[in-house]
Specification:
This protein has 105 residues and is mainly β. It has a single domain (20-104), classed as Cupredoxins -  blue copper proteins (Immunoglobulin-like), CATH 2.60.40.420. The chain has 1 helix and 9 strands, in the order αβββββββββ. The strands form 2 sheets. It has a 5-stranded mixed β-sheet, with no helix packed on it. The protein is globular, with a radius of gyration of 15 Å. Residues 4-104 form the EfeO-type cupredoxin-like domain. Keywords: Signal. This is Cupredoxin domain-containing protein.
């Protein structure tokens, strides 16, 4: 019974485990890289590193994700598995400069 409870306790961690991790940097209100290629059918952990002093909001309607990242902080955003295609994202607080796209191949 203790083994079953231990396994059940790990399920949330297993459910969010990503196949790979990629870093997206925010600096001077721009995302870098602006184009990020990821494989189709894989879960991806995006580590968003906001190097600006002010907060930014990662937002993507196509990915159904939005997350505020305080200045000089990092945040994790899990995406996928995705079908091949282009998934634009932007920074809602600096939409004129903070733009990018995730290309799934």
């Amino acid at each position: 019974m203790k083994t079953l409870i231990a396994i059940l306790a790990l399920l949330p961690a297993i459910a969010v485990a990503a196949d790979l991790e990629m870093t997206l940097t925010i600096k001077d209100h721009r995302f870098s890289p602006a184009e990020l290629k990821v494989p189709a059918g894989k879960k991806v952990k995006l580590v968003v590193d906001n190097q600006d002093a002010t907060a930014e909001e990662f937002e993507s309607h196509e990915l159904n994700r939005e997350k505020v990242i305080p200045g000089n902080r990092k945040a994790n955003i899990f995406i996928g598995p995705l079908q091949p295609g282009r998934y634009p994202f932007f920074g809602e607080f600096h939409e004129d400069s903070a733009q990018g796209v995730i290309i799934v191949e």
